[in-house]
Amino acid sequence: MGRYSADARLDWCRSQRALRQSSPGSPGQGRPSTCPRETPSPLPERGPNEIRDLNIAFNRMARDIRQAEADREIMLAGISHDLRTPLARMRLEIELSSVSDETRHAIDEDLAQIDHSIGQLMEYARPAGIAPEKGIEVSNVLHEIFDRERSHTESLGGQLTASIEPNLYARIQANDLKRIVINLIENARRYGRSPDDDKAYIHLSATQSGNIIEISVEDQGVGVEPHEIQRLLRPFSRGETARTGVSGAGLGLAIVERLLGHVGGNLDLISHPPQGLLARITIPKIRMRAYQHPERKGLN
Questions:
Q1: Is 39 exposed, middle or buried (0-12, 13-18, 19+ CB in 10 A)?
Q2: What's the pLDDT tens digit per position in 160-180?
Q3: Which of 298, 30, 296, 292 is nearest to 135 (CA)?
Q4: Cis before residue 274, ω within 30 degrees of 0?
Q5: pLDDT (tens digit per residue) in 229-284
Q6: 295 falls in which pLDDT band (50, 70, 90)?
Q7: Helix, strand, coil proportions of the chain in percent (round to 5)?
Q8: Which of 61, 132, 142, 265 has CA atoms 20 to 30 A from the CA of 2?
């Protein structure tokens, strides 16, 4: 490196940093980053031949990744449209048909399951948002989720309760937090029904512990065996029949873990059959004082 110019050394360092950020197995992957998750800027294609060739290859790789992501989004949107359009038509035809109510209900449940699976596939493929520079008030977002999901849970015959501490702040997109928590609640609604009356009793809680925010969703189902927990986190994996009498794509928990990985969070599943399943997520907490509005700072 001694014979290279200062510009060449700078280009080499930028190349190495960019490659480390893009490598899935590099040290530091899976930990919170102070850099926003975004497409890297093109590297300068100048300098010694080795560095220029490396930068050209990196820029080509970045372009290919961007194109692949764009193609994937278009493909998934097309698949969703092409599958959901006939589903809507089939629902309408069933409502107008002369089949018995029992048959109509059974077919409608099958169609709803197909629609749910399509939605999960789309959700899994959708990228996470870039973590905001300023934090969001997690407590407010959780209350919004609770108000909406409680009515839906009650319409299905279940019950959703909550205990949410105020003034919890974290650097995470509000939409991503909603996707995470709603997936956990939906998982509890579908697979965590009580064996006594086949209804879902779910409790949502949020507390702070040191520099960590803990958000838990607990059901009163039959739980899962400890040796099954790691397998449930894999995409397209589902629990045993004892817990999962309802079919599904098996992507809910994988979506949660994927989104948490972008903000340095973790997902833990705690189960002691037959006492239900506790899904607990942890995300780094930020200090509220640093993100107060200017007028509030003046009151301190």
A1: exposed
A2: 999 999 999 999 989 889 989
A3: 292
A4: yes
A5: 888 777 666 655 444 445 555 677 888 888 898 888 999 999 877 778 999 999 99
A6: very low
A7: 50, 15, 35
A8: 61
For the stretch 53-81, pLDDT in tens is 998 999 999 888 888 877 777 777 777 77
CB 22 within 8 Å of CB 29: no
Residue with tokens 């018995």: 100
Structure tokens at 41: 């800027």
Among 209, 254, 265, 215, which residue's Cα sits nearest to residue 33? Answer: 265
Contacts of residue 178, Cβ cutoff 8 Å, sequence gap at least 6: 141, 144, 145
Amino acid occupying residue 78: G
162 in Cβ contact with 142 (< 8 Å): yes
Between residues 12 and 284, the one the model is more confident about: 284
Query: Tokens at residue 250, please?
Result: 């098996």
Pairing relation of β-strands 212-218 and 201-209?
A: antiparallel
Third-level CATH fold of 136-289: Heat Shock Protein 90 (3.30.565)
- Rounded to whole angstroms, the Cα distance separating 237 from 142 reads 27
- Could you state, in order of their start, the residue ranges of all structural domains in the chain? 1-26+40-127, 136-289
- Contact between 143 and 160 under an 8 Å Cβ cutoff? The reply is no
